[in-house]
Specification:
The protein folds into four domains: 7-43 and 297-328 and 428-493, no CATH class; 50-60 and 206-296, Efflux pump adaptor protein, beta barrel domain (Elongation Factor Tu (Ef-tu), domain 3, Beta Barrel), CATH 2.40.30; 66-203, no CATH class; 329-417, no CATH class. Helix content is 31%, strand content 32%. The protein contains nine helices and 22 strands. The chain has a six-stranded antiparallel barrel with strand order 4-11-15-13-12-16. It is elongated. It starts with 18 loop residues before the first strand and ends in a 14-residue tail after the last helix.
Length: 512
């Protein structure tokens, strides 16, 4: 994934965060190390994240035109690049065999009608004779059977003539869709085969495509495919129009992966409206899928973020006690939890006890709760006290009742539509999947202090701050834990090197 940044993102210069001053006095082993950090203020900026890939323009709808009739091509009425409407005549095929079949069917129909007329007359006479007992019942039934056979023969003749007329009409090949002729594979005078009569599938005459809607088939690495979903907007650029980007939309992600040079990729289809007919099949395209965008948010450099694993090494860099730092972070976490849920819970519990177990303002005071770092809005009829009681039952190992299970189903369905801790409504998009919980060191009162922060969208240089910091804070950019460890290993190697008694080197120095 290649993150794109807004113009104000480009002013962030590289910061030298670690300086090592190693001095060997008189070939001695005394060295001094100076660790340098810089305080960077929390700033308001735009964060844009996108994934870039290459692809090829394809028609959204591609149709191979074949003829249901076999024979010689008499005339081709269209050329490549020509737009035609559905039902327009494209090619004429030799009609002689089909015309003869229609004439024969008409003759058979005339014979069948004549036989039906005779059978009808015989049926009338047989009925009169049977009434007067002049013929036997067997003779009467034979006459009725002849009449039924005559009627069936007429039906067969009519169906045959309809089928032959259809075959005659099939000699005129018409456009199956409204679109553009993009390829012609036959010429006048060529003998073609029918796909309905030939096991080989028949002859492809033309290829048509609806170019009003085209698509780009691009391959996205499996590490980025989780950030992409149908409906995301995209910008498509082709070499023919380098200064004119085209707006697209992610149509779908193919479920089957493709291996390219031992890299697992997934095909992604980008749909584009081609109203001006500028995009043509086969054009190479550059696609930029807009994964997320946050305008005017608090942001800090990613270099200032620390995970729990390297908090201790960062504290040592700043000259702080790792144990004291961990205690401060734990106290900060407890204070936030108490601030979010402690006061409101005690107030609502007191109000409920005064009112005999029911709070008249319960719907207004208990319609939200914190869950996994999120503030979710509870559905109607469900209070925070109910949910907390069910959670307590889960923690104690008890099984919930059917009513409590139904309540939890409602809560789970509401988790996707809650409000974030910053008061903003969290959308169902994947902008927040980049975020996480980190630790930053903030310069307050001239001293560095650890602070727990929650981040959101990131462009790999800056991260959105969801909670934990304000615009007045300044975060400290520090070396990574691996950099500190490599520096310590380097110092140890220097010490072993100077203390190993190598020829020509001595740790002592003489004074004059």
């Amino acid at each position: 994934m290649s993150p794109s940044r807004s113009s104000n993102n480009r002013g962030y210069a590289q910061i030298a965060i670690l300086g090592v001053l190693t001095g060997l006095a008189a070939c001695g082993g005394e060295e001094s190390t100076e660790l340098v950090y810089q305080a960077v203020p929390v700033e308001v900026r735009d964060i844009i994240v996108s994934a870039e890939a290459a692809g090829v323009i394809e028609p959204d709808t591609l149709v191979e035109v074949k003829s249901k009739a076999s024979g010689e091509i008499l005339d081709i009425l269209v050329e490549t690049g020509q737009k035609v409407e559905r039902g327009a005549l494209l090619i004429r095929v030799d009609q002689r065999s089909a015309t003869n079949a229609v004439a024969l069917s008409r003759a058979n129909l005339d014979v069948a009608l004549a036989r039906l007329e005779n059978a009808t007359s015989q049926k009338g006479r047989a009925e009169e004779l049977f009434q007067s007992r002049s013929i036997t019942e067997t003779e009467y039934e034979a006459t009725m059977l002849n009449f039924a056979n005559a009627k069936a023969e007429v039906v067969r003749a009519e169906v045959q003539i309809d089928n032959d007329r259809i075959r005659l009409d099939d000699t005129n090949v018409r456009a199956p869709i409204s679109g553009t002729i993009i390829e012609k594979q036959v010429e006048r005078g060529q003998v073609i085969s029918s796909p309905t009569q030939n096991v080989g599938g028949g002859t492809v005459l033309l290829k048509m495509a609806d170019l009003n809607l085209v698509q780009v088939r691009t391959l996205v690495d499996e590490t980025d495919i989780g950030k992409i979903k149908a409906g995301l907007t995209a910008t498509v650029t082709v070499a023919a129009y380098p200064t004119r980007p085209f707006r697209g939309e992610v149509l779908k992600i193919e479920p089957l992966a493709v291996q390219q040079q031992n890299v697992t990729m997934f095909p992604v289809l980008i749909g584009i409206r081609n109203t001006d007919d500028l995009l043509r099949p086969g054009m190479n395209a550059e696609v930029e899928i807009h994964i997320g965008r946050r305008d005017g948010v608090l942001a800090i450099p990613n270099a200032s973020l620390r995970t729990q694993r390297d908090v201790s090494s960062a504290a040592m860099v700043l000259g702080l006690s790792p144990d004291d730092v961990m205690q401060q972070l734990a106290a900060d976490t407890r204070a936030r939890q108490e601030e979010k849920g402690g006061d409101s819970t005690s107030r609502t519990t007191l109000a409920a006890s005064i009112n005999g177990g029911t709070d008249p303002n319960e719907a207004a005071t208990q319609n939200t709760m914190e869950f996994q770092g999120r503030t979710i809005t509870l559905p109607d009829g469900v209070t925070r006290r109910q949910v907390e009681a069910i959670f307590q039952k889960f923690r104690s190992g008890q099984q919930p009742t059917s009513e409590e299970t139904a309540v939890m189903r409602k809560v789970r369905s509401a988790m996707g539509g809650g409000r974030g801790s910053g008061g903003r409504r969290r959308s169902n998009s994947n902008e927040y999947q980049f975020g996480g919980s980190y630790v930053v060191f903030v310069l307050r009162n001239g001293r560095p202090e650890p602070v727990n922060v929650r981040t959101g969208l990131t462009d790999l240089d800056y991260s959105e701050v969801i909670s934990g910091l304000t615009a007045e804070d300044s975060v400290l950019v520090l070396p990574s834990a691996s950099l500190v460890q490599s520096q310590q290993a380097f110092q140890e190697r220097i010490q072993r090197f100077t203390g190993g008694g190598l020829p020509g080197m001595s740790k002592s120095s003489s004074k004059k």
